[in-house]
Fold this protein.
Amino acid sequence: MHPAKNSGFPLLKSLLLCLAFCSAPVAPVGAATTVHSLDQVRGVIKSAEGRAVFDQQINGAPLPDGFGTHLPDGLTKEWLLARLAPGQDIKRLTLVGAKPWPQQPKKFVAVVCLARSVGQAASELKDNANSCAGYDDPNHDVWFGVFGRDASGALQLIARTDAAVNIPVSWSDTNLDAPQNIGSAASSNDPSSGMPESWLRFDLAPYQLRTGDYAFGVRVGWSEGYSGGGASFEGLYLFHIDGAKLRVVFAQPMMFTKMLAGDWNKNGTRDHEESDGNNVLAVLAKTNDGFHDLRLHEQHGKWHRTFQWSAQERRYKMVK
């Protein structure tokens, strides 16, 4: 159940009409709540993220401009592409965005997203002027960067990913349901990991890893449709500046929401089973090699995991 007219996925309203030809879903890990009509589903979704997905998909709420596609003054798509992904064909470009970084005055976080082919880009852009979403498999190359203004006000590149992001999200130790196709991507050797289908939005919460040293987040997603329902899943990447390089230092699942259609009622309504889960990432006071520990915990439950900085790998590792 993914926000999807604007992200490239079929509308869930269409999925609700699919009664015979869609693949059967895997039973949810979390406890499901049964309601007796579609209009009761929103009231049992526990997470704000899940309710936002439902509002966008079912109630037609507009998608926010999560990547800042209305570019700040002084930035153009051509300028950003040349600096974040030099040498790449602009005809493959499907999304470019930049937003001010609240914790870092005069700095911007930026993204460029490219389809794997010119033909794919042209097809996507017919329906959506800014798209970084796939259907079943990862099919975009995505670069990120950070820019700042010098004393004269001119924009300068501070750091960027040195290639398209290729680090998968790991579902090997999580309390959340996983997408069915996790582990199917050729880029992942771990059957419990997978690259995102969709790149959704910046997450600019204050992820302070060291004093005055912040990471910024990016939310990513997967979506799947069932007979009379669907599901949406989200993960979180954290990017950290390391010299002139922008590195992925954290990649974990964060949310799922799932809705399955059940029996028809005599009054013409239909039962629906809803299940969802949401995790929250907290920065702890305790440090390791100068970096604060991170704690990923269930929003309405007891599950949690702790992550510590690995100086050798230059990223966070789970220590439970």
Remarks:
- The chain has one domain: 12-17+31-278.
- The chain has a mean pLDDT of 82.
